[in-house]
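@channel sequence for tomorrow's demo:
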Amino acid sequence: MNIKRTNRISEEVRKIVSELILNGLKDPRISSMTTVTKVEVTRDLSFAKIYISVLGNEEEKSETIKGLNSAKGFIRKEIGNNIDLRYSPEPIFHLDESIEEAIRMSKLIDEVNKEAVNRDTNNE
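structure tokens (generated this afternoon):
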């Protein structure tokens, strides 16, 4: 299958799932600080790997994944209703911690820069 088409479908699935997380799902386990970072649809369009980022502690992350997994059927149905495909892809949720890792790295860089400035002012 054409890679441009799978990329377009992946982006459409990302939009639909993002909208569902914001407005469509009423599960209290799903954190309000949940974002869809990336979607990869397989070439045969049978599966969609959905990477989500949850800002919060480990319990909130695991509860959000549980809530999304319990809503898989509804999410798949909504994907099928909004995208004209023969078969709607089965959603598979993965936790993406790249945003939190980037925040942690940014804080470490800031700390190193502050230490360098302090060291420079003490040496003068």
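heads up for whoever presents: The helical segments are 3-24, 58-70, 72-82, 98-123.
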